[in-house]
Amino acid sequence: MTKLGLPDTIRACLFDMDGVLTQTATVHAAAWKETFDAFLHRRDGAAFRPFDAVTDYDEYVDGMPRADGVRSFLASRGIRLPEGDEDDPPDRDTVHGLGNRKNRLVLEKIKELGVQAYAGSVRYAEAARAAGLRRAVVSSSANCHEVLVAAGIDALFEVRVDGVVAAEQRLPGKPHPDTFLAAARALGVPAAEAAVFEDALAGMEAGRAGGFGFVVGVNRAGQADALREHGADTVVDDLADLLGEAS
Question: Where are its TM segments located (predicted)?
Answer without folding.
Answer: none
